[in-house]
Amino acid sequence: MVKIASPVMRNDVLLDIATFLARRWSGNDKVVIILMPDKPPTAKLDKNQIILSLLNYYPGTDFQKYRQWRVALWFESMRMKHSSKVLSNEHAFGFLLNTLETKRIEILGLREWEGMANELMFNEGISWMSRQLLNSIYGRYKIAEAFSQYFLTGYLKGELFGGEFDKVKKAADYANEIIKEAIDNNYGTNWMEQHIPKLIKILELDSLVSIPLLSPRTRVGASLNQNDMLKQVEKVVQMRHKKDDVQKKTKDVYEGQDVLQEFEALLTESKRTESKGYESLENFGLSVPDKMDVDETQIYDIDLIQKVKAAFRDWKTGWIERHDESGDEFDVETYVEALPKTFIADFRLSIKTKVVILLDHSSSIADVELEYKQATIALCEALHYLGIKFAVYAFSTDKQQVKCWVIKPPNIKWSVVSARRLVQIRASGGTPLAEVYGLLLPMLKSFKPDIFVTLTDGEPSDFDAVRQMVLSYRKMAIHMMAIGVGRNLNDSVGIGHNLKYLDYEKAISVSRLQDIPKKVIKLLRSS
Amino acid sequence: MESPPVASKLDQEEIIYLDWNNAFDILEKAYRSGLFVLIIGPKGTGKTSLVRRFASEMKKELDSVNFSLRTRESHLVGSKTLNEGEINFVEGVLVKSMRNGTLLYLDELNAAEADVLLRLDEALDDRRQLVLKEAEGQIVKATDDWFVIATINPLSHVGTKELPPQLLSRFPVRIRLDYPPEDIELDIVSRHVTIDDSKVRDVKHAIQLAKSLREAAAVEELYYSPSIRETIAFAKMLNTGLSGRRTAEVVYANAYDQWGQVEYQKVMDMITSIFGDR
């Protein structure tokens, strides 16, 4: 089951917006977001991955959690864009380099995304609450934490003794000089890294001193006092916003109206998808693929998607044009003959049809799995583009048990989340089609699709039972169609025969997987 | 029958076009070599302005056809009409352009139906002639200085089809016209709208926003890609006293509401992170 981040916000909704924002902010279309509980935000530059925690990682109200999460996403996107290396935070060397980089990318990032300034102020205010009190640190990393606080915000939480503050101040001055030079001369991470040893020397640290990583929520506990936080935000605003209207600005920054609407829209979307929620699905014997750390980009064949969409452009406009000759002939025969086809008739084509697609993931699909998934994605993208209401299910055998997977329920919009669900299903096992039809029956009784398309290898393990089920679906006025997926022409012909015997209303088979989307959409059109 | 509204002579007044990628030079060289040109690019990148400007510089009369699903063969070639009991053949824009040696501009060629394109193909092959089966098999030969420029939108645009390969080969010189870099776009906008110094920042922001949205549309994350026209509209609305953020909402974000609240909010988030305060 998918874990729920907060009582209301759904992870797949978060994933959708995070993917969009990270790609736009970083200017990198390949960025993949991975949500992992209690994992500090990290960018894996070589893999184009941004790892984000769930909202519960942060303290505060649900909205405040979202704002911090969004700022973390922005920082990681900036790291993706402006850094060439991200070291582990667990040792002093990496911790210091990342701290310096945080400031450098913030300056560079704000040049392009200056609207983030308010949110960064808010984030600084609230994250101060979870910063460690220096007096309470006894380990050798105290001075590293003190440096990070002073360098990033300009002040310290707690006190330092015995000349430690001088070291911190000297190191911060040096770090600021480095940052300035890097920005002025457009130097990158590698150049910054060369200066870390000197910084370590100033701080009299050991580069291998380990730095404990704690989630902000753990540090601040459940008792985040909103008044204290407001005061902290005001302090940040006073330092950063060098204008008179501090109070008004503080109010704006604290309330975050600009992001509030977005948060509310995401909540509404979460509730919408929740109402016919996943909880109930399990009762029907359906499962939701729940890994949030898979890369769906491999099954996106943009070229194929574009082609399929282009092929059905006329559907999008809602008009299909047919050139018929009509009207009564009049006398001057030659005149009529010489004319091009004169009269045009327009037919409005309805795409109100509701469609369910069932994908066979039995072992016979295994050797063409990738192309099969790419074709399916192209089909779904096209259906979504055409504004057709549809649902997608898949089945496979997992640990000798038939699993019917929910890829896209009818009430959820098609997005990368559904693609992510599809990519993690492994083709295995037989084709227990009748059993799967049985599992889907209660769901489909409520969705009432007009058309049910099954993509299959055409060799169900239970022929007669399938025929029975097909007939019972047909009795519910659902048009049953099947597309046989063959590996070559001979194979397809055989599958075609099988499908005919199974009493589908329409059955075709394909040997070129890339044809699947067009064939399915044409089937829908002709029905 | 519909009258042919597609053919029009474009006026020759001062046309604003900034030749930022030297397309003009290529056009001129192709013209001198008698090679027809195909311009490929998304909508609102200044294809039409480029061609109009070229015609005006070359002092060539311009005949243009804007193709759509409804463009018929008869619009191009001509049709017979019954006038006071007599049947006359009224020539279409293609035939006129061939006879008069004008610059024929075929806009959004890939929006047309295949049968329309077939007829065009006949005129564009090396013989540069057209047999008018509509007018007793008369043969129309193009003058030597007849020149054709066609444009197509990339396939991702609504209503576009793949151009048949034989027709593609009739346009051996191809120019790709994409959205200009940000500083050039600012230059283009400032040629259309006077931008006050205090508003330059907002217009730059709008250009950045448009660029982001175009990138998202190119990878199918959004369903609409704003053109330079929108940036010009933004600058105009800004001049009426609206704030930058509010103008961005009405010019850019609201269009995405048709694909749902979340899509709209994605664009609003871009606006928030670029423009900031209300």
Total strand segments of chain B: 10
Low-confidence stretches of chain B: 1-12
Identify the strand order in the major beta sheet of chain A. Answer: 4-9-8-7-10-11-12
Termini separation of chain B (Å)? 53 Å
At the first level of CATH, the class of the largest domain in chain B is Alpha Beta
CATH homology-level superfamily of the largest domain in chain B: P-loop containing nucleotide triphosphate hydrolases
Give the oligomer, counting copies of the same chain as homo and different chains as hetero.
Answer: heterodimer
> What's the helix-strand series of chain B?
EHEHEHEEHEHEEEHEHHHHH
The share of residues in extended strands of chain B comes to 15-25%
Query: Tell me about the biggest sheet of chain A?
Result: 7 strands, mixed
Q: What are the segments of chain A in which pLDDT stays under 50 over at least 5 consecutive residues?
A: 1-6, 274-280, 344-350
Helix content of chain A: 40-55%
Please characterize this protein's 3D structure.
The complex is a heterodimer of chains A (527) and B (278). Chain A has a 7-stranded mixed β-sheet, with helices on both faces. Chain A is elongated. In chain A, α20 (463-475) links the parallel β10 (451-456) and β11 (479-485). By secondary structure, chain A is an alpha/beta fold. Chain A is built from 22 helices and 12 strands. Chain A folds into 3 domains: 11-270, no CATH class; 297-309 and 350-526, Rossmann fold (3-Layer(aba) Sandwich); 312-348, no CATH class. Chain A is 52% helix and 12% strand. Residues 1-6, 274-280 and 344-350 of chain A have low confidence and may be disordered. By secondary structure, chain B is of the alpha/beta class. Chain B has 2 domains: 8-176, Rossmann fold (3-Layer(aba) Sandwich); 182-275. In chain B, the strands form 3 sheets. Chain B has a 6-stranded mixed β-sheet with strand order 1-3-6-9-2-10, with helices on both faces. In chain B, α7 (182-192) crosses α9, α8 packs antiparallel against α11 (261-275) and α9 (228-239) packs across α10 (244-251). The longest helix of chain B is centred in the C-terminal third of the chain and has 19 residues, at 200-218. The N and C termini of chain B lie far apart (53 Å). Mean pLDDT of chain B is 85; it is low at 1-12. The chains are: A alpha/beta (527), B alpha/beta (278). The interface between A and B is large, with 50 and 44 residues.
